[in-house]
Each structure stands twice: as C-alpha cells, then as structure tokens.
Amino acid sequence: MPLAPPPVHVGEKIAGVVCVTSGGTTVPLEQRCVRYIDNFSSGNRGAASTEYFVKSGYAVIFVHRRGSCQPYCRYLPEDSFLEFFEVSDQFEFQALNFLRNSFFSSIQVVAEGLLLKIPFTTIFEYLQILQLAAASMSCVGPRGMFYLAAAVSDFYVPWENMAKHKIQSAAGPLDMRLTQVPKMLPVLRNQWAPLAFCISFKLETDPEILLQKAEMALGKYQMHAVVANELATYKREVILVTANDRIKISKENDDADVEEKLIQLLVEKHMDYIKDLGKNVCNV
C-alpha cells in the first residue's frame, strides 16, 4: 500500500486554497428520515487527492461524506482496527509504522491550518456547504480551486413531497416520483465562484461515450477541466480533459496512486491559469 505523502513544511507559502468534495450524497425519503437513496462512493479519490494537494502547498477544505475515507488514513475503513497494532515481547501494544505516520501527518496538517474537514450526509447539506465554501474562498479569487470528486445525487424528493414519518410497508408497493436535482455546476462557476479554477468528474460504464460526455460537461458547465474515468478502470487510470488537451494518466505501479500524477498536472494548470488571468488577489 502506498504511504501518504508528507505534508508541506511550516512556513512555506500556500500556493492556493482548494475545496475537495468527496463521497456520495444521500436523498432522504422521509422528513424524519429512516429510508434514503444513496450514491455510493468510498471517497478514496478525494482523500488521496487531498494528501497530494497538501503536499503541493495547498490549504484544503475537505467536504466529505460522513464515514467515507479520510486523508492520511485511507485504508482504515476497510480493515480491522486491531490489525494495525503489534505486541512486543513485553506484551506492550505498538502501532505499526504506517499508522503512526498517518496519525502524525493528519495532526500536523490540521494544526498548521492546512486541512479543514466538513462532513455532509444529504444532498441538501452538500449543496449548502458548497455554497458556503465558495463564499468563504471568494477573497482568494483565482487562487481558489474546486475539485468536485463527490458522487452527487441526480434525483431527489422535495421536502414538501416527503412523508413526515417512516413510510409503512403495510401500505403496499411504493410509488414515488423523484425530481431532478438542479444543475449547480454553472451556478458555482458563474455566481458563487466566478474566478476559481473548477474541476468536475465524469464517470461512465461505457468507454465509447466517456470522452464525449466529458467534453460536453466541459463546455456546458464551463469547467476548466474534467476528469473522465471508466468504472472498470478508475483506480488505475483517468483522462484529464481540458479545452486543449486529452491527457491519459495511469498508475506507474501497483503501489502508486493515480492521484499523484493527476494532482501534479492540475496544479501546473492552475498556476498557468493564475498567471494568464493576471489579476491581483489578496494573500491567503
């Protein structure tokens, strides 16, 4: 398993501020929610990307699904906690090296103000937090970035149409009409954060339409870049789609993270964007 990259050192200049969204949103079916529709996402890509953004000198607002993978401890949700300790000959418990490294890296970046974690569960929470993050980042102008890796619900039940209490199965089959979630990417791009560098994601199961959908999202929502990934290979490779490039990024080996090369490339493009824009912004 790859080790988490070391965080940026204290005192180094912050390159920018990035809002990373990670994990899947839920759609409640009742006002006093018992049942819900879930968009599954482990959050591994968002967590890994956060580590590499910090390594690249960014401060990160990590907007994540409760219970999803976290930066510097991406492997903990999948394994028994007891497997991360060893017993010495004197019957003393010791944490394995990579667990200690992850713990201290996490503590360090939070203490230095380089990582702020904000959890969400529902689609309603997610959109409200995204708007608040955009407002908070407005002072950094083009030095702000949005890396929208969360799996956001496409459909929802409006509050006024929800059952107030738990839906009863005794009532028989359930018929429910879902409403399409408003497309918030153009709102983010044009109203909430018009100067920020914005990256969205496109996941498809059919490789024949993947690039077509990514290019459509690039133009329709005025994104600066779209990360296109196929469900069968998303852990090994992605394609970064911009107005001028289609760059395939692959893992170098089994122990590498595809996010390392992806973030390196996005940081370069962000720096070029800031330089080209040539606007004066406040210091972080």
From TrEMBL:
Belongs to the PPC synthetase family. This is Phosphopantothenate--cysteine ligase 2. InterPro entries: CoaB-like_sf, DNA/pantothenate-metab_flavo_C. GO terms for molecular function: phosphopantothenate--cysteine ligase activity. It is an enzyme of class 6 (ligase). Its EC number is 6.3.2.5. Pfam families: DFP. Residues 18-66, 131-255 form the DNA/pantothenate metabolism flavoprotein C-terminal domain. GO terms for biological process: coenzyme A biosynthetic process. It comes from the Eukaryota. Keywords: Ligase.
